[in-house]
Each structure stands twice: as structure tokens, then as C-alpha cells.
């Protein structure tokens, strides 16, 4: 079965069956990860880091949140809120 066929079939399965598939897939990935040599692990990490560089470049979706640095998370117009012991 091809990946496309599997992905198309997923919505037709029960949640329980989808979770079984996800668990099995994760177990296979973890088994493969543990069987890699140190050099193979290093290559995969390098590739993942290179792929992620664009995500952290100026103007990317992830860097949008850095515009909020230094701002209050919440604003409470009732100044007594901060002194009420809550």
C-alpha cells in the first residue's frame, strides 16, 4: 500500500484504529532511530537543523512571536487585581 492510499484511508478508520497505526508507526521510527550509528544520527540531526534554519529566519512565522518579547502577557484594567492576593 502506498503512502497516499494509507493517508486517504485514515479518515475512514475508527479513532482506536488510527491510534494503533500511529503507535505502531512511532515504534518503528524509534526502533530505527536506536539502530542508527553515531555518524548516521549526526547526519540526521545536521539535516534537521539545516531544514529548521528557514523556520527561524527573520520574517518567518516562528519569529513573528519574538515581536511580543518584553510585552505584558495579560493586561488587567483593574490595577487592584495585582494586589488582591490572587
Description:
The chain has 86 residues and is mainly alpha-helical. The protein has two domains: 1-35; 36-66. It has three helices and no strands. The chain has helices at residues 3-9, 15-35, 38-52. The longest helix is centred in the N-terminal third of the chain and has 21 residues, at 15-35. The model has no long low-confidence stretch (mean pLDDT 83).
Fold blueprint:
Blueprint: H1 3-9, H2 15-35, H3 38-52
Structure at a glance:
The protein has 86 residues and is mostly helical.
- What overall geometry do the principal axes of the alpha carbons give? extended
Tally of individual helices: 3
Q: What does the radius of gyration come to?
A: 23 Å
Mean pLDDT: 83
Secondary-structure-based class equals mainly alpha
Number of structural units classed as domains: 2
Termini Cα gap:
57 Å
Specify the biggest β-sheet: none
Number of strands: 0
Low-pLDDT regions: none
Helix content: 40-55%
Beta content comes to under 5%
> What is the chain-wise order of helices and strands?
HHH
